[in-house]
Q: What sequence folds into this?
């Protein structure tokens, strides 16, 4: 697979494009152009379908409001306030586990930035809100020999990583809200990582584990060719760097 383009027009190895899905629904591009409101309604409906029954054919399903639905697994069992846990461990003095209520009780930070997937789609000025990752790292007491942070997900497959310096940036959140609403299952709720300055694949959905480590371990897409340092506009060979 070409890591820059993926196998299909929607990238990340997606075999089928948006036009085809609309075709499967009997709606051509003409119908969409003639009735943009129909496209909005369709995206909302498909977002709801993805919420209940993710197909695994990812990047193909709109996820509402300009997002696309991505999952590397075919289905993800939902978690709620009762069942959700976020563990923090590895090279820390005080490993622990947070419930959703624990995370909600911590200071919240709201950021409004453009979401940018490396395959090209973009959602402008999108509010995310949650707990700064640095707050959780400080509470856990990161040991001197630590250099990186690894993230695991309750889909059982996806992973991500950041250097410790990146992880401590004020624009990296353990996000609980998207557009001022609790983060829904299809967007990786109840809790996802949000790495504002990097391409959206760094923002691991369905976050369940934070492990402080001695070196960066490449994440799911990074083992498949994407850059580990995924700065928007400065990585993956896709964007011109105006400062270069
Ligand atoms: N657990 C998990 N997190 C993930 C992914 C995934 O497949 N699984 N895909 C990534 C990619 S490539 C993108 S573009 C965004 C998509 O988020 P969305 O489904 O909320 O639009 O999630 C990122 N985080
Ligand atoms: Mo993506």
A:
């Amino acid at each position: 697979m070409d890591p820059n383009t993926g196998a299909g027009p929607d990238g990340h190895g997606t075999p089928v494009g948006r036009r085809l899905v609309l075709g499967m629904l009997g709606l051509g591009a003409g119908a969409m152009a003639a009735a943009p409101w129909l496209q909005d309604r369709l995206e909302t409906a498909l977002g709801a379908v993805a919420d209940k029954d993710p197909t695994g054919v990812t990047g193909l399903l709109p996820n509402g409001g300009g997002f696309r639905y991505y999952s590397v697994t075919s289905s993800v069992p939902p978690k709620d306030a009762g069942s959700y846990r976020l563990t923090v461990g590895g090279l820390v003095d005080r490993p622990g586990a947070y419930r959703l209520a624990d995370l909600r009780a911590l200071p919240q930070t709201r950021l409004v930035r453009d979401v940018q997937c490396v395959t090209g789609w973009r959602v402008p000025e999108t509010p995310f809100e949650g707990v700064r990752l640095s707050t959780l790292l400080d509470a856990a007491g990161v040991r001197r020999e630590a250099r990186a942070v690894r993230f695991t997900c309750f889909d059982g497959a996806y992973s991500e990583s950041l250097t410790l310096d990146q992880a401590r940036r004020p624009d990296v959140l353990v996000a609980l809200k998207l557009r001022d609403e609790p983060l829904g299952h299809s967007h990786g709720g109840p809790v996802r990582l949000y790495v504002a300055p990097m391409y959206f694949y760094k923002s691991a959905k369905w976050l369940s584990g934070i492990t402080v480590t001695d070196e960066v371990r490449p994440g799911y897409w990074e083992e498949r060719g994407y850059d580990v340092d995924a700065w928007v506009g400065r990585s993956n060979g896709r964007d011109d760097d105006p400062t270069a």
